[in-house]
Amino acid sequence: DVWEGGAGRQWGGENGNPNPGSQRNSWIGILTLFLMHRGKLDCAGGALLSSYLIVLLVLLAVIICTVSAIVCVSMKGTICNPGPRKSMSKLLYLRLALFLPEMVWASLGAAWIADDVQCDKTVVNGIIATVIISWIIIVSTVVTIIIVFDPLGGKMAPCPSAGPNHLDSRESSQLLHGLKTAATSVWETRIKFLCCCVGKDDHTRVAFSSTAELFSTYFSDTDLVPSDIAAGLTLLHQQQDSIRNSQEPGEVISHSPGAPQEADLDSELANCQHYMQFAAAAYGWPLYIYRNPFTGLCKIGGGRRAPPARRVSGTTDYDLVGGEQLHCHFGSILHTTGLQYRDFIHISFHDKVYELPFLVALDHRKESVVVAVRGTMSLQDILTDLSAENETLNLECGVQDCSAHKGISQAARYVYQRLVNDGILSQAFSIAPEYRLVVVGHSLGAGAAALLAIMLRSSYPQVRCYARCVSSTSRKSLYEYSKNFIVSLVLGKDVIPRLSVTNLEDLKKRILRVIAHCNKPKYQILLHGCWYELFGGSPDNFPTELDGGAQADLTQPLLGEQSLLTHGSPTYSFSSDSPLESPTKYPPLYPPGRIIHLEEEGTSGRFCRSAVRYSARWSHESQFSRILIGPKMLTDHMPDVLMKALDSVVSDGASYVFCPAGGGSNVDVV
User: Fold this and answer.
1) Using alpha carbons only, how large is the chain's radius of gyration in Å?
2) 443 catalytic per annotation
3) Which domain holds residue 269?
């Protein structure tokens, strides 16, 4: 039964109605309108409108009762014990049947309004609003179903009989291949629907296929809905905090660090602070307006404007390439960096899949030619991020196993070809031959900047790279090779530097484990989790382990250890206690170069940053081998938050903490 399989859980558990509160409010509003203004319906066409409102009230009342029943039933049992929710499929069928009269009645309402009924204006406007709201609810429901409905249904569920002998048969191999192909096709359809405004060139088609394969592989062995994931993350955060609180304080280094180490961190933090301005400038006017909401528009709109770019025999005072609103972008770049028009060699806001915007400028203060690559800010950039397969790099660096994240390496190669083949770097160094090359970026741009620096090092041996909140980019061989010229900066629990497919697979298994061992209904987990994230509290007052034999009473529809697709998954591993060792397609990735980690000192509240103090230290890559859960795991990635933290650390000066040369991890993970 498709509804009792994966699709039923996805549609019933999350989207029996995308917004039941809106229909309840609509019913109250329509009832109020009818009771207060029914005397004004004595007009031409008024009888039809009166009948429309009465039938609509009855229909909405039935829908509200059905949705309320769905909500009540869905609150029963636990995530892994669906037995008390056996009646859900019947309620879903009933709700599905009600869509037909709902759509018919909304269409009739639109037709009657189009006939220009001559009644009281307040009544007509109220009915127009009712019709519009009805269609918004219907369209949003249909779109949600298209996105989340899984047509494979129960076929994705675990198959207990699918043992190794069963999997070796030719018939099972064909079934496995068919299921994987179907799952990939479903995800590709969803992604194309969500990214319908993105172009359809070859790179985009490749990115669609790559992203669909990633998602189908990742979710092939589970039947999780978004609220299951939210509940699992909530439990993991509490469990993580509980383990950290129960552990002994980490070893304190009592001796003072050596002068070279201290001076090195001091100077690199100052460099990070300086070059972060260029990484932020590469985002153009959107980030500038976000950081300066009250004065930004006035500054870039009424301030300095860029004169037309001049091209003379193949050279350019500066180039403005691609995109709209280029002068707004240029104005924000001038204000962010503090440079002059003449200091810019090239500015590109050309934005496609695997092709990132970037700028090239002369930094006279640091005597450097700066290449700044923009981070994620469009659907095209997201598709680049999600092209996560492993890709071999042809580099002249003498390093074995040169491979990296496909999307990031493609983006770095595009910028490299523009810089070298179009003569942009040659032009910059013809103006300032004694300057050194510095490559910077944030987020996706940081990963591309790191690989770009590796590509350029054979031609520019003095190249330096400063990568802020860098994505996990390269294999360990490149991580070791890049320590001499790349510095990565990570803030707090920022999820992006830890976001490799290997770490995501490990996170999925931890989520499955913690929800399988939880004996509380999902709504209680989420309510308690919201309170814990907003106001804090003790992580130990919410049990997550089942008592004794109660564990045997559970069914486990979420855990696909025996499913066909699990055993065929490229990320499948029998190990559950350590990050998975993935095969060649999705190998472990690491932030490049030496890593500076900025961490909060003490507790400063769940979201407030006004009085936050940070410490900085050199960290080892092992500290980023697992995803950490926390309320700031996303906000720590924002460029404005990172810039404030950098300013705080550099201005304080004394808040530097040094770890042993071995760099072992002291971070508590679960």
Assistant:
1) 29
2) yes
3) 262-300+323-501+591-603+611-657
Q: Which DSSP letter does residue 574 get?
A: S
Catalytic residue chosen out of the listed positions 443, 471, 474, 619: 443
**Of the listed 319, 363, 385, 494, which one is catalytic?**
494
Q: For 463-519, write each residue's pLDDT tens digit.
A: 999 998 776 666 667 778 888 899 999 999 999 999 888 888 889 989 988 888 888
DSSP code per residue over 366-434: TTEEEEEE--S-SHHHHHHHH--SEEE---SS--SS-EEEHHHHHHHHHHHHHHHHTTHHHHHHHH-TT
Whether 283 and 136 share a structural domain = no
CATH number for 598: 3.40.50.1820
The number of folded domains in the chain is 2
Task: Give the tokens for residue 612.
Answer: 């936050």
554-600 pLDDT, tens digit each:
444 444 434 433 444 444 443 444 333 445 577 778 888 899 999 98
Look at the chain and count its residues: 670
Question: Token digits for 102?
Answer: 């709902």
Co-location of 454 and 596 in the same domain: yes
Residues 469 and 336 reside in one and the same domain? yes
252 lies in some domain? no
pLDDT value of position 124: 74
120 carries an active-site annotation: no
Residue 48 lies in a domain: yes
Domain boundary among 98, 117, 148: 148
The answer as to whether 531 is a domain residue is no
What pLDDT score was predicted for residue 135?
86
Query: Which of 148, 165, 193 is the endpoint of a domain?
Result: 148
Sequence-distant (≥ 6) Cβ neighbours of residue 33 within 8 angstroms: 53, 123, 126, 127, 130
Instruction: Report the predicted TM-score, pTM, of the whole model to 2 decimal places.
Output: 0.79
- 117, two tokens: 């009924």
- Tell me the pLDDT tens digit for each residue of 398-455: 677 778 889 999 999 999 999 999 999 999 999 999 999 999 999 999 999 999 999 9
> Are 479 and 204 within 8 A, CB to CB?
no
Of the candidates 649, 664, 662, which has an alpha carbon nearest to the alpha carbon of residue 616? 649
> Which 8-state DSSP code applies to residue 497?
G
Q: Is residue 368 part of a domain?
A: yes
With a CB cutoff of 8 Å and minimum separation 6, the contacts of 249 are: none
DSSP bridge pairs for 468: 442, 489
